[in-house]
Amino acid sequence: MYLAGTRAADQAAARATPESPDQPPVRRSKVLSRVPGTVLVLGIVSLVTDISAEMVTAILPLYLVFGLGLNPLQFGLLDGLYAGATAVLRLVGGHLADRWQRLKAIAGIGYGLSAVAKLGFLAAGSSVPAIGAVLAVDRAGKGIRTAPRDAIISLSTPPEDQGRAFGVHRTLDTIGAFLGPLVAAAILFLALNNYDAVFVTSFALATCAVLILLALAPNQHRRKTESNRPSIRESLNLLREASFRRCCVWAAALGLFTITDSFVYLALQRRWDLDTHFFPLLPIGTAGTFILLAIPLGRLGDRIGRWKVFIGGHLALVAALVLIFGPVGTWWLVLALHGAFYAATDGVLPAAAGPMLPEHLRATGLAVLQTGQALARMASAVTVGLLWTVWDVKPALLAITAALLVVTLAAAIRRPLEAIR
Amino acid sequence: MRRLISLAVGIAVLLGGAVAYVVSARNTGAATNAVPVVEDAALHLDRTDLFFRNLADGPDQGKLAAVPAADPGAARRVGELSCDRFAAARGTAICLRLQPAALPPLTDILVLDRNLSVIHEETLPGTPSRARVAPNGRIVNWTLFVSGDSYAASGFSTRTGMYNLDTDELTKTVEQLPIFIDGKRYFASDVNFWGITFDAAAERFYVTMASKGKTYLIDVDFAAYQGKAIAQNVECPSLSPDGRRIAYKQKIADGKWRLAVMELATGKISHPADDRLLDDQPVWKDDKTLIYPIRTPDGKTGIWSVGLTGPPKLLVDNATSPSLGGLQ
């Protein structure tokens, strides 16, 4: 517990306590006026962390091949393993955060692990197992911090503003991802292609983010009673709650038919025969649209219902895929729809599910929801890859698009979230 | 308030430290060459020379260097040209050079004449991996590593292309090449090609294809532009000058390769007396001798030579990407 803090943080903390009524927010710019200070703090923490993370991602292949003379194919095999481990650690991070009632501490450990990993690259040298271990620590940190961080956002924000709050957080986060490669390029230029300088800068930024989190994000002022310390059994019981279970099931069902980004870009590149120079720039189109739309769509969700926006996002993805195979449309329209899909789903889902979870199980619940969705999307990537092999690109993507449309319409009709409203 | 001040101090120290590190990193290069180097040499494609990328510390690190193939211990001669990968054959050379500070990475592909003057240039996305010139000197080919972009999965892939000097035709990737495995057309979303080697007449080439965790040696009829898999676990093939054998890095486990030689007529595989980790496309010095770079556990890379029988020997220390000046 800390005593002094910023006004915004105090106020946000006050909001998190059920006893305190909604207070008029401090005056900030009009767009952000209803966003709690805690959310802005976490958004900035994510922004700085993402600059740090993406600068390493951007140079890693160069570093492995050029700095060390290694063969990157030696690392590719571990990718699937990491993705699975990250999903499991997200559950662990969420559960421990709730159990120990230490959301901020667990999030801080996650951010801290990733920061230390950046220096690990210097220590690992050119040893393949050591580099593998460093990558594992980095991703473990990411897995651990996600659920407690989202729980803090959720608990700091009144239920009616959740969409806007997550929209603001995800926008700041993506801006960081946008800036990362640019910062990395600038540092390589200034340091005359010295890769260690990028790792050191990345470590410094990641540590700054941890400091910002520790200094400015409030601890959660929750009543500490034994009954509020959830056991694993109680966490599992969350899924007995009909509305939350349906939310998880539908999110995972939609995830099963959500096409991975790389397949979308590959199909798009083939459809319009885009130059290979262009290929690495396609995600920028998606991220740019995401940055523009995440806040407006989050607010729209607050107003008309988040599940509607979530469903609308999946329809945007269906439309994007139909465009890829239709006679009309352009590649940038596809990217815009792809960005809209993420803007309507990424922050909207936790915004929708958060308020239906009890406060002392918020991190656990969000972890279960997002892990289910992530595992379903991994399964989808494998399925699409298999279909692509057996049927070739067009029938594979058409089949998965048709399936996505059917599930989306079913989810729209079932409206799992409206049931509890 | 105290908390805010500590935060500000903490951030200032961290960012100040990073800036100081970046500035100091500008001055880390050694001022003198660690090995004897003859600077400002006028290099040209001489068949008696062994070319390589100089890795020795000093101002000439990264430059293309040459020594007499018969006397590889002689002082290395360097000019102005820097190459990450280099290969030559019959009066034509290819030099791959990573563009500094380009993210996502871009590679300049330079086609050079006998005097190492640039006669054609392309820029493609990726980082340099392999380069070769067909024995007739009229087709250059390359492999670049292309990494997943920062927002997608972090998987790597390779892109192999070629340029025909006679027709001015650029093939950015051979990914569209129809492939037959066991007589059946093979389709997959995850195919990667790397390491082309042409035959003497440039009528066929061999290349590695990877898909679903397996690697295949593909034999390609260049005119018909289709290929068939003729062996597995063969990577970075290199066809001997007499066209009878393929030297390659043999995959023995994930991330582990060693030098091996296959008789094309019989498929018989033999192992030259060097079982260390090999991660490059070998070069034939003649029909019975191979040249290749080896990275030893101390992190240093040197160029080694081995006969089909007999022990390996070190030719040039602190060097990689070997090529003869035009024998093959």
TrEMBL record, chain A:
Compositional bias per record (Low complexity), positions renumbered to this chain? 1-17
Cite the Major facilitator superfamily (MFS) profile domain residue spans from the record: 38-419
One GO cellular component term noted in the UniProt record for this chain: plasma membrane
Residue numbers spanned by region Disordered:
1-28
> What's the superkingdom here?
Bacteria
Q: How does it sit in the membrane?
A: Multi-pass membrane protein
Enumerate the UniProt keywords alphabetically: Membrane, Transmembrane, Transmembrane helix
CDD domains xref list = MFS_MJ1317_like (cd17370)
- Which InterPro entries has this protein been placed in? MFS, MFS_dom, MFS_trans_sf
Give the subcellular location. Cell membrane
Q: Which residues cross the membrane?
A: 37-66, 72-92, 174-192, 198-217, 247-266, 278-295, 307-325, 397-413
Instruction: Output the Gene Ontology terms for molecular function.
Output: transmembrane transporter activity
Hey, what's the signal peptide range on this chain? Answer: none
Write down the PANTHER family for this protein, in alphabetical order: C-METHYLTRANSFERASE, MAJOR FACILITATOR SUPERFAMILY TRANSPORTER
Q: What is this protein called?
A: MFS family permease
Provenance organism? Kribbella sandramycini
Q: What lineage is on file?
A: Bacteria, Bacillati, Actinomycetota, Actinomycetes, Propionibacteriales
UniProtKB/TrEMBL annotation, chain B:
User: InterPro entries, per this entry?
Assistant: 6-blade_b-propeller_TolB-like, WD40
**Xref: Gene3D superfamilies:** TolB, C-terminal domain
Q: This chain belongs to which protein, by name? A: WD40 repeat protein
Q: From what organism does this protein derive?
A: Kribbella sandramycini
